[in-house]
Amino acid sequence: MITRFITRPLIKIYSHMEESIKFRTGLFINNTLTHKKEEFIPIQGKTVKWYICGPTVYDSSHLGHARAYVTFDYMRRIMEQYFGYDVRFATNITDIDDKIIQRSNELKEDFSTFARRWELDYLEDMAKLNIKPATQFTRVSENIPEIIKFIQKIKDNGFAYEVNSSVYFDIEKYKAAGHLYGKLEPNASKSLELLEEGEGALSKGVETEKKCKADFALWKKSKEGEPKWESPWGMGRPGWHIECSTVIDVDFAKAPIDMHSGGIDLKFPHHENEIAQSEAFYNTKDWCRVFLHTGHLEIDGKKMSKSLKNFTTIKEILKHYEGVHLRYLFLLHRWDTTFNYVTSALEEAVAKHKQFSEFLLNYQVIQRSTGINRLQKFITKDFDLENALSDSKEKIHAALCDNFDTPKTLDLLSALVIKANAYMSNNTDIKVHLLQSVASYVEHILDSFGCILPLKQQDSELTSALLNVICEFRTQVKANAADKAALFKLCDQIRDTTLPEVGVRIEDTGKSCIWKIVGKEEAKKAVEEPKKDKAKAVKEVVLAAEFFLRQTEKYSKFDTDGVPTHDIKGKELSEEQRNGLKKKMKSLKEKEAKKKSS
Amino acid sequence: MITRFITRPLIKIYSHMEESIKFRTGLFINNTLTHKKEEFIPIQGKTVKWYICGPTVYDSSHLGHARAYVTFDYMRRIMEQYFGYDVRFATNITDIDDKIIQRSNELKEDFSTFARRWELDYLEDMAKLNIKPATQFTRVSENIPEIIKFIQKIKDNGFAYEVNSSVYFDIEKYKAAGHLYGKLEPNASKSLELLEEGEGALSKGVETEKKCKADFALWKKSKEGEPKWESPWGMGRPGWHIECSTVIDVDFAKAPIDMHSGGIDLKFPHHENEIAQSEAFYNTKDWCRVFLHTGHLEIDGKKMSKSLKNFTTIKEILKHYEGVHLRYLFLLHRWDTTFNYVTSALEEAVAKHKQFSEFLLNYQVIQRSTGINRLQKFITKDFDLENALSDSKEKIHAALCDNFDTPKTLDLLSALVIKANAYMSNNTDIKVHLLQSVASYVEHILDSFGCILPLKQQDSELTSALLNVICEFRTQVKANAADKAALFKLCDQIRDTTLPEVGVRIEDTGKSCIWKIVGKEEAKKAVEEPKKDKAKAVKEVVLAAEFFLRQTEKYSKFDTDGVPTHDIKGKELSEEQRNGLKKKMKSLKEKEAKKKSS
Fold this sequence. Notes:
Chain A is built from 18 helices and 18 strands.
């Protein structure tokens, strides 16, 4: 059954801008708070106040982080670029935490230097994954006075108590006041193991201070060697959950907010406790309207864990793949279901990316070479493609409205591209304007998914890099104008370090030099190992639907399924020949489907 | 009073894709057919079947053409990129027409070669104005058999008659069947002068063939020296209006279509007669839902005409201005009202374009140079800018919903940019992620208006050029390594000649330098006319709100209105000083308002 949008009836023309009006696009989202898929309607106008838990910075980000951040990034882009919401996206960096203290102490490194180092590492990964930075971005350490005030108010409201210079949240009082503890996790109070884990490794042994086992720390007394701040309860530091509740209040100032999100592992106890704190702080039962949690991530059918040695970091994967491949990996699976990562899934992502970028590149070639001198009146095949485009637009709109169904969207987009490829392959009578409409739509959707075309992005980056090189070079030449040796060194440096770093290879040819854009790896290799063999070709996965379309040395025309109809000389194939090819295609598709489901 | 949209209530989840559902965005459009501003709702899903009359190709396109084509281009982009409609945009080229025949005969040139030459001229102009090509684009000459069939059916339906190998539309029969002749122009039947003009210069003398003066030609008997095609009524050629009715049928196959558009001069008799023909053909009273007509264009208060010698071609204007300036010219005025063109209006357009592109360039400089090492927690001025952004988004949405109010949108966008400039000018504590949100929104709206930033387009070329610069520079530095003076000369040359030639402006800032991609003209100008004369040469219109913000040599901080609060040394201004400056600002704004309304 397909979630299909939307009537938007009862138009009213308002004379007062102040009047509160609802912005409805027909988008339905799976809301973990209400445990159902429901229509999303912002609280105020088109504005979406959305908070996403940032990382605790003490180690490299892994595939689980990648899934959460990529997912919420493409959702945000779809909401902004496709649906037209005004998303106010806020996040934090948890730079005070038990794990940070432990690790930095082990390394005898100042805890804040340590945290800032891993923050940079995280931001580097995010940039490589093309994650759009949050509009509001702040660190827990920048918000200590606000955290203390937040705790004080919870205490004043009667939902917290102080013991031995620590402050705990009082679950029983909270429940007694009519709040529900367990909005996200119905078994909340009983999940003591998770609750304890959430309290942090350094809190072992203080359980006896609590009135009730489910109570959790808002403020922790600091021991020797732990960072500490002054507070009404003595020197200490904030608990984990209170950090996010406070930052959200700093960011958005009042309840309710529209959306809150994170990986599924944050659902309990972290988000459950955030809800408790914020409801206690605002004295409300309506703090946040929608919670989003990405599904579990498994590796080869098992939970990712360090003990299983299947803990894969983003950096590890980016050694062999591009950021955009990881993005397709997640786009190809529904965001809120368990995702079992197997290596072949990444190969599928690579193939999908290649399918789209090849199409757009081929379109560009046609656009450069095909004029409109010939007959421009549409004939059947033109109408077929135009109708396929309109049909894709309607169906993709319905898929995106249905809880961001990106895998379905990519399937539909693939089918459209296959049709457009077939259209291009009969390269007499191409209507280039029609093809432009298809290409610009494909580009629009991919752009809304954050799968920016490498060409454009790399171009701008490269341009910036080159201009920086020129500016720096000019400056250095002026500064060293009296030192011949230094100038020659500068010139070598540009050839051997600066430009390879941006993917450009310089070759000195006697009196002058030439350049080639070859990519970073290639350019560096050229300096390190002058004449070694090129890297092995990437093993390419050919989609069944494209199997024949690529055999342009054998066939000249194809039907809409991509099965050949004419040989290379333009002769129509016999019924028998075509049936043979159809059989082959069918068997390829079956193999593909089998591989996909396994 | 502001047209404010929209509640979109009564969500329904359909299990059948087939069910007909309305796509409503809250967009209201001035519909010339119903003579009122009304909500636009596509007939089917998100699809908008839209036809726009292309040109009769016999001369250069003029400012009136520019207005119509630019207007419908930005409307189309807004509908596609901003509102998310699926626009099926179709157009034609009128390459058979009395004027074409006359002119080509005068030149003793084959009429179709002649027409194709002017078609190319027109397409060249459109490309320079960044008009997105229609998905469907066909020539009248490609549709002769369809035109004959179309006329035959009108005749079969009883609404046309043959006289002396010509066929005429029968207005009286049409009216008698209950159709309204005069849907667009209530005085239709009485406007005989315009009707006659519409019949073409070569039809003089055949009026007596008609049953009624208001009848118009569907098929014209060809005389000696006129192009001709075989038909059931003898050798002849199509009338003007029938061409569009037929092409629309070829493009969209059935009535009704969603939209039809053209300049106001096409409203009567051309569009009126198209309605009559198509209603007669389909036997319907519901052929096209919305007609759009751009307002009149006057030059210095007078109608544009060749006899007044105020007939300005697009090419003439593009000698002195860029395509994007013409686009802003029209965006700065409501599309459906009379536009009185005065030269200063173009200067205003230049200033507006400059304001936005400078903002985006300055943002890019900040983005390259500003990290996030400092405190990232939002303080009041950050929240102010974020709120200004949200507020602009709401108001711009309302303006675009209100019959494409682009002048208001640009005013609101300007106000936002002024605030962002003030924010950037206090360059301690800039939150670069927040600024990115503002810049990307400004870019999104300008992109929806077709005011593409040159950056993206020129990137690839630029990359090559820059790499050439680096190679050449390296070579020269090596060759001149012993000659200090020569090296300095080289550095100046790169700043003053090489890089301006590729559109890059280098600004030396003491010990280092920064770069801006500004386009060739601008970069060269910056070198040729050093600081003082610059203002004169460009004759820039400084907006009152920016008057002080530009005086960065005098003031260092400003309030949100752009009034200085601190002098260049960082000292706060006195109450008295600030009041003086506020007075000055007030008087400037009053002058500005006066000038605008006059």
